[in-house]
């Protein structure tokens, strides 16, 4: 381990894109602080990465729907003498039931997990990054942020927030040596669709629409290092984002309504 190694805080590191970022950054020599709810998975990954790459790898189990979680994570980093140089705001999921049939607690949890917690984490790590004159922040948005709103789901609205705010933060922070990138993947082979309960439908989609998480991470990491505020990984996703963006509002609305996942029940 290099004592002067930079440290990356990765949320949602127990699976999918987050675990892939952990592998990628460990291979690059970054120390890691891994966060998710499933501590056993985090510990297993941490042990593996330390053995393979000789990097320090700490684990903090937290439920990011808990408003106290972001401050608790940073307190833990302080106790461990870790300055956060890289933040990968990745933890997320999509709601799976219609708005009016979903308890407020679950909706509020989605907002806390994918809007409030990542925003607070940025606010907590930025002063240290500014002081050191270097920082890299990747916020997981989605190609859905360019798509028409999907009926009932908060997801497209949430990911649009992430896309918009990441650009705003990049404008403010770039002069301080801090790059902020909204990473906007399309269909990526992770546990996301298992959690959402859409695995069967997703498996019927054409293979060309899918990316492996490694491809998403490699392109996303290269983008933040180059200072690109937005990264849509993969050619197919770039084409679909570009095609959806210029849709007139009325047409976008109709498209979203046509693909309403809840219209049959
Ligand atoms: N896969 C796709 O097709 C796709 C496309 C576009 C964007 N994305 C975005 O990419 C990000 C990563 O998703 P993924 O595809 O890698 O999904 P995934 O394989 O299901 O991983 C999601 C990660 O988020 C963590 N997480 C979920 N709820 C959490 C909570 N309450 N507190 C803390 N951690 C929590 C999970 O850990 P625990 O369960 O252990 O807590 C897991 O590590 C998400 O923001 C997602 O919206 C995914």
TrEMBL record:
Residues 6-164 form the Ketoreductase domain. Its EC number is 1.-.-.-. InterPro entries: KR_dom, NAD(P)-bd_dom_sf, SDR_fam. Pfam families: adh_short (PF00106). GO terms for molecular function: oxidoreductase activity. The keyword Protease does not apply. SMART domains: PKS_KR. Keywords: Oxidoreductase. The keyword Protease does not apply. It is an enzyme of class 1 (oxidoreductase). Belongs to the short-chain dehydrogenases/reductases (SDR) family. PANTHER family: NADP-DEPENDENT 3-HYDROXY ACID DEHYDROGENASE YDFG (PTHR43086:SF3), VERY-LONG-CHAIN 3-OXOOACYL-COA REDUCTASE (PTHR43086). This is SDR family NAD(P)-dependent oxidoreductase. The lineage of its organism: Bacteria, Bacillati, Actinomycetota, Actinomycetes, Mycobacteriales.
């Amino acid at each position: 381990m290099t004592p002067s190694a930079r440290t990356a805080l990765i949320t949602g590191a127990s699976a999918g894109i987050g675990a892939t970022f952990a592998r990628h950054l460990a291979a690059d020599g970054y120390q890691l602080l891994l966060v998710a709810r499933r501590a056993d998975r985090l510990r297993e990954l941490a042990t593996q990465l330390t053995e393979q790459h000789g990097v320090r790898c700490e684990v903090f189990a937290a439920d990011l729907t808990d408003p106290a979680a972001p401050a608790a994570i940073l307190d833990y980093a302080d106790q461990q003498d870790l300055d956060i140089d890289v933040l990968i705001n990745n933890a997320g999921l999509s709601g799976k039931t219609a708005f009016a049939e979903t308890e407020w607690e679950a909706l509020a949890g989605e907002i806390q997990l994918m809007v409030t917690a990542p925003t607070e984490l940025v606010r907590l790590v930025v002063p240290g990054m500014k002081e050191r004159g270097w920082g890299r922040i990747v916020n997981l948005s989605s190609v859905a942020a360019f798509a028409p709103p999907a009926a009932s789901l908060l997801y497209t609205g949430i990911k649009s927030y992430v896309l918009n705010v990441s650009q705003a933060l990049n404008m403010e922070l770039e002069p301080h040596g801090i790059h902020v990138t909204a990473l906007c993947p399309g269909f990526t082979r992770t546990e996301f669709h298992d959690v959402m309960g859409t695995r069967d439908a997703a498996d019927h989609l054409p293979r060309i629409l899918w990316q492996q998480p490694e491809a998403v991470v490699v392109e996303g990491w290269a983008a933040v290092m180059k200072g690109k505020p937005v990264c849509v990984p993969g050619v197919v996703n770039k084409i679909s984002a570009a095609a959806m963006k210029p849709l007139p509002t009325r047409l976008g609305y109709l498209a979203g309504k046509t693909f309403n996942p809840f219209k049959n029940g």
